[in-house]
Design brief:
The structure is a homotetramer of 345-residue chains.
Chain A lengths: L3 E2 L10 H9 L12 H13 L6 E5 L2 H12 L4 E6 L3 H4 L4 H4 L4 E4 L8 H10 L7 E8 L10 H14 L2 E6 L2 H6 L9 H5 L2 E5 L9 E5 L8 H7 L8 H10 L4 H22 L12 E2 L2 E3 H8 L2 E2 L1 E5 L4 E7 L6 H15 L2
Parallel strand pairs in A: 1-11, 3-4, 3-5, 5-6, 6-7
Antiparallel strand pairs in A: 2-8, 7-8, 9-13, 10-13, 12-13
Helix pairs in contact in A: 1-11, 2-11, 6-7, 12-14, 13-14
Cofactor (chains A, B, C, D): pyridoxal 5'-phosphate
GO molecular function (chains A, B, C, D): lyase activity
Family (chains A, B, C, D): Belongs to the threonine aldolase family.
Chain lengths: 345, 345, 345, 345
Amino acid sequence: MIKYSFENDYSEGAHPRILEALAESNLKQRTGYGLDDECAEASEKIREIFGCPGAQVHFLVGGTQTNMTAIAAALRPHHAVIAAETGHINVHETGAIEATGHKVLTVRTEDGKLCPADIETVAALHTDEHMVQPRLVYISDSTEVGTIYHKKELKALSDACRRLGLLLFLDGARLGAAFACAENDLRPEDLPELCDMFYIGGTKNGALFGEALVLVNPALFEDFRWMIKQKGGMLAKGWLLGLQFKLLFTDGLYWELAAHAEKQAAEIRDGLKELGVEFRWDSPTNQLFPIFNEEQVEKLSENFRMTEMDCLDGNRRVVRLVTSWSTKPEAAEEFLRAVRNVTGY
Amino acid sequence: MIKYSFENDYSEGAHPRILEALAESNLKQRTGYGLDDECAEASEKIREIFGCPGAQVHFLVGGTQTNMTAIAAALRPHHAVIAAETGHINVHETGAIEATGHKVLTVRTEDGKLCPADIETVAALHTDEHMVQPRLVYISDSTEVGTIYHKKELKALSDACRRLGLLLFLDGARLGAAFACAENDLRPEDLPELCDMFYIGGTKNGALFGEALVLVNPALFEDFRWMIKQKGGMLAKGWLLGLQFKLLFTDGLYWELAAHAEKQAAEIRDGLKELGVEFRWDSPTNQLFPIFNEEQVEKLSENFRMTEMDCLDGNRRVVRLVTSWSTKPEAAEEFLRAVRNVTGY
Amino acid sequence: MIKYSFENDYSEGAHPRILEALAESNLKQRTGYGLDDECAEASEKIREIFGCPGAQVHFLVGGTQTNMTAIAAALRPHHAVIAAETGHINVHETGAIEATGHKVLTVRTEDGKLCPADIETVAALHTDEHMVQPRLVYISDSTEVGTIYHKKELKALSDACRRLGLLLFLDGARLGAAFACAENDLRPEDLPELCDMFYIGGTKNGALFGEALVLVNPALFEDFRWMIKQKGGMLAKGWLLGLQFKLLFTDGLYWELAAHAEKQAAEIRDGLKELGVEFRWDSPTNQLFPIFNEEQVEKLSENFRMTEMDCLDGNRRVVRLVTSWSTKPEAAEEFLRAVRNVTGY
Amino acid sequence: MIKYSFENDYSEGAHPRILEALAESNLKQRTGYGLDDECAEASEKIREIFGCPGAQVHFLVGGTQTNMTAIAAALRPHHAVIAAETGHINVHETGAIEATGHKVLTVRTEDGKLCPADIETVAALHTDEHMVQPRLVYISDSTEVGTIYHKKELKALSDACRRLGLLLFLDGARLGAAFACAENDLRPEDLPELCDMFYIGGTKNGALFGEALVLVNPALFEDFRWMIKQKGGMLAKGWLLGLQFKLLFTDGLYWELAAHAEKQAAEIRDGLKELGVEFRWDSPTNQLFPIFNEEQVEKLSENFRMTEMDCLDGNRRVVRLVTSWSTKPEAAEEFLRAVRNVTGY
């Protein structure tokens, strides 16, 4: 019997405060397509908290939609995107970027993060009209393998991008997780300073759905709503997105939910380390990648849902565990207890 | 002061029963991406009610997304779509179909509806490899100008499509409105019999959002979920869509909500006709297109939100009024009273 | 037995002078991809003759390729093209423009030509983000129905484009024919003054193949060669194009060939008019659209190849006859004689 | 002073026999767009020589155009291509494949060749709808690094493709070079047996331009001409392509020209090896990749044009030398003499 699913951080609905607010104003008539007061207020809150009074904020339903709309809007046909080989747009979006006509140039990394040398190498290889022209660098924070960018790293990457004439786009589907992490030294106001655009994930941090895309570089502003509509991302009842983000950025709910998820992850991480369990990637955030053997995975899977990521030599399996804003402390404890049982430590 | 908005049928949230069900199971952990029980149950209900046990049902968030995903999945690069000039995909989706690479071939119509002769003419003109190849016919019911297809008409169109090797796709964003209309003689089970695919609109009939796409022709089944993901339409918490459609098709809620909207529209339609107001299109559904003069529009707009559609000769304006599942009878009455005042009848 | 084909103006090879030049320098080693001396010299000649010293000139193989590359390079994804319904990009390029993601907004015309009111109407209808955004106006000179733009007309259209923020692109696949026509009052230097870009057709005026695209507006310059390569239009032995255009613009060969074609067309046009034959479009150029009855078409087709364009009431057929740089005077004479026979005049 | 360019195998025009035939029938009127007798005869010759009586043959102008048209025609939107990282479509076509919407999944290789294990690995990683679906394997023979497929290798790859449901497409831009090579054990008739489609390169083996695409798998036949036209590849005077291929496959001219190029390459290859020059790739065909030091490259470049490919440690440079159907024996000799001088051997 499955007691708890660590499959992802979007298995549950929304934080109850969101549902309450929704129910309260459900029958109010509102302007469609995100031109309502909720979206205006949510945008304003985000501009304040992230310290970018001149930015445009757009609310979209999901991550793939946000990535492909933002990237397609920023590029001319011959432009390409640079991403880590593990980048979400490269492996988990069914070629959505390519479907808008753009090549994703990939870089092999140890930890899912790009550094200046990576993009310099790619830029140096693409010199003439027989090759695509790199124009945008896509990163995620936290990354697909749970790691985060430290301020120094993001600054260096941002500097390299500006030097090379590349736009920098940060996918913050799990921005809460990154910022909640003990190691993190980035503050909200660093993002608009260092990136040309970024998005703040709601789906994976307590919203029913929704991502808030922040366009910082004014070169990206023109007609952006046309792009949203064309790519199928303009929600008729757009206020649903505004209302959720307004709440998430009221009284620090967004950060609080992320902190909760991180606390449960820390519990499991520390517990597993104590038991000597190895990790595939050293993630300080809410995605953990412990290594178990096949039998252990099988046993643990009787009660816990996890994702098998990879098979290593000698019968070892990398699994992914994700904690969320609604993971109960008991779930973490029970999981550790189960690991103790199956590992025999 | 605005007393009521007749701007569209998606100004409010969702039917309260939907919000209640949402709140009830909010914290239940569910499989992502529409592979959950809610979606399975909702699909099953739809297959039963529409009498198509072998159909595939997919839930998407919005109309443009549904149209472009369904059409792009069905076509090869040189294939084109035939649509009425007023068709939603032609005028109100920011070129979403063309953005997937396909031409929309348009037909001028009086009433927003296609007939066999229309598509025969288009087919006859596209004969060789220097021209696109018509492959799919897009219609909507009710149409963008409020009209509906009678069974005989849809049957004739369907026959012509099959004769010409064309797929038939029915956009049912306002299928409820069409079926609720007194003139309607189509039954749910007629759609899978006559169309290759169709969608049932939730956004405009009481859901927070959501459209249920029904693929009838097995040639359209293969890998459809790949297309949804690539086009950015795969909702992480897909169960939100399943849960809503399950409720809408429980105890006839979907038809009940549409009947309510139609009742309010009938009230206004009949009232206006009595007052001698003319209409641009003779719509039997929840979209009405009365003609007022400029001053009348201005006065009415002080208390009611409407959409200006067109300017006719002699200072006359076509406006659009839309009633919804939540339009109160008082709103219709008040509007008629206001018309009486401004027209001086 | 077919004595002569009036099917088009590209049934034969190239003017002999071109083949000679080709043979002469066939074994010379040259830089690839249009970066050779021939292309440089041809570009320089075109810039001089058309009076646009700052323009970029690019040589491409064919018309569809040129249209789609130029248009795709100029537009962002939500931008649309305005064209006459008869426009080549709308009917005879198998959706090549749409395949690059852009909608073609069409205007019904009497004579294949756009006027300011046409584009003002389209612009006025496209006002918000639910619709594509018109950005470029596509015209051809001579048009697909053989008509030409007078200077006053082109000036008015150009002014309207600038007022409305639209780019103007002139497809000169048959620019020679337009300029050779007695009515024409446009001079080469008018094109760069009035258009943002245009192309000079070689395929239909004595080259083996080739179109010279002239980018006038510097906003269109950036990375254009990337676009050519991506769209498959970068010819390895690009010098073949340069060499041909260099010759065509040496000693006025281009104008001379067009004048020859026009002379033959005039012969036929005048002869037919004398015989009382009606025309579907009143074309002053090398495409003629006489109307014959079915039996006449059948008889004439025994000896002459023509294209059937349309069926009119009462058994009447519109055919298209095209003369070329290599049409012999005898062919025109023989055709007229045959018409006299079949019509019995 | 540049004595000879080894920059590529398309620096010169065409074999004189081609120009003669062209001149001879230059003024003959022919049907446009490849529907002429020359194309029909050339197709027939190719079907005979390659032993595939049921195949479709299409003639296109260039390689990028052929690759993108063939691949786009074969795939649905979510399908991806597997290619070697060095594959022409991956690095040297400015993202033409992605511009048609498809991802290129790359495999690192030692020698530019794919083996069954490569494609099995890619297939195994792409399992669900969140990822693209590999559908076509792209290889080239000879490859971009001059290597060739032996029959056993191609057979094994073909078997793996069929097992995995993947189409196999062989880019034969340098098929002549591959077949002329001493090591080669593939015969023409092996290609249609092992591949679903392949193309025979003319541009790099004595034609002015042109590639002959052979569709073997009947699933790829439908409406292919529509795809050619849409992608801008339908040449008005298509007979130019047919005439060239007809001649190339008359009296074995195609093989003869390739043999000549290979003979010159062998001369240089053997000469350099004798001198102890190292090679980056061990190419048995007409592309050679010797390693010189910076000073040597500089000196040699005074008289010979070559392409710098890469910088290795310690001041070493990889250059590329290409011989062609028209490389004179003297050029090879002179080059070897120059190398002797600069290396001081």
